[in-house]
Amino acid sequence: MKFFVDTVNIDDIRLAHDLGILSGVTTNPSLVAKEGVDFRSRLQEITAIVNGSVSAEVIATEAEDMYKEGKELAAIAPNITVKVPMTLDGLKAVKAFKEEGIETNVTLVFSGAQALLAARAGATYVSPFIGRLDDIGHSGVSLIGEIANIFNVHNIDTQIIAASVRHPMHVTEVAKQGANIATIPPKIIHQLIQHPLTDKGLDAFLADWEKAKGD
Ligand code: E4P
């Protein structure tokens, strides 16, 4: 499983890149609003740092407008992936982008059937939102397993991005269930790195080394 970061914060993206773990970035309108940045110029900055896919979401809701908007976003850099919502118009737009060789990420996926439809329409990626499913009492992690199974049985090469990841356990669980990618908030990278036994062990090694050195 690869890691994407789910943010438009440039320092967080740079840090993940410097750690050598970064295969891509996902963004969404809420993250852009939170950061208060100009979306297109921020996309330019992000795509200059990251070699992999950078998802940029369309705001339009009708297929033709999605297509127009997506083409403009895709023109920003070759590694832009156009993010499209899982709607009837979204699927039409995905088909059109596929014919043009433009990568797409179908977002707001909450069922195996939606993922299958998106894949058949030509999506490069599907993004099941696991945390939001957990919020309403369904298992987001199980959905990842279900989609991985469907794609496997039917030889579908659309990549599964586990999205709406809320805590470190989600990351290991979706990796076990067959997600190709987890897109994670930067805070979770720090949580994943830390372990109290690592800290304790390092403290002991450093203290022993001080003793071994003598005066
Ligand atoms: C993914 O592409 C989305 O940007 C994101 O994971 C949504 O997460 P949230 O449910 O925490 O907003």
UniProtKB/TrEMBL annotation:
<keyword id="KW-0808">Transferase</keyword>
<dbReference type="InterPro" id="IPR004731">
    <property type="entry name" value="Transaldolase_3B/F6P_aldolase"/>
</dbReference>
<dbReference type="GO" id="GO:0016832">
    <property type="term" value="F:aldehyde-lyase activity"/>
</dbReference>
<dbReference type="InterPro" id="IPR013785">
    <property type="entry name" value="Aldolase_TIM"/>
</dbReference>
<protein>
    <recommendedName>
        <fullName>Probable transaldolase</fullName>
        <ecNumber>2.2.1.2</ecNumber>
    </recommendedName>
</protein>
<comment type="similarity">
    <text>Belongs to the transaldolase family. Type 3B subfamily.</text>
</comment>
<dbReference type="InterPro" id="IPR018225">
    <property type="entry name" value="Transaldolase_AS"/>
</dbReference>
<comment type="function">
    <text>Transaldolase is important for the balance of metabolites in the pentose-phosphate pathway.</text>
</comment>
<dbReference type="GO" id="GO:0004801">
    <property type="term" value="F:transaldolase activity"/>
</dbReference>
<dbReference type="GO" id="GO:0005975">
    <property type="term" value="P:carbohydrate metabolic process"/>
</dbReference>
<keyword id="KW-0570">Pentose shunt</keyword>
<keyword id="KW-0704">Schiff base</keyword>
<dbReference type="InterPro" id="IPR001585">
    <property type="entry name" value="TAL/FSA"/>
</dbReference>
<comment type="pathway">
    <text>Carbohydrate degradation; pentose phosphate pathway; D-glyceraldehyde 3-phosphate and beta-D-fructose 6-phosphate from D-ribose 5-phosphate and D-xylulose 5-phosphate (non-oxidative stage): step 2/3.</text>
</comment>
<keyword id="KW-0963">Cytoplasm</keyword>
<dbReference type="Pfam" id="PF00923">
    <property type="entry name" value="TAL_FSA"/>
</dbReference>
<dbReference type="GO" id="GO:0006098">
    <property type="term" value="P:pentose-phosphate shunt"/>
</dbReference>
<feature type="active site" description="Schiff-base intermediate with substrate">
    <location>
        <position position="83"/>
    </location>
</feature>
<dbReference type="InterPro" id="IPR022999">
    <property type="entry name" value="Transaldolase_3B"/>
</dbReference>
<dbReference type="GO" id="GO:0005737">
    <property type="term" value="C:cytoplasm"/>
</dbReference>
<dbReference type="InterPro" id="IPR033919">
    <property type="entry name" value="TSA/FSA_arc/bac"/>
</dbReference>
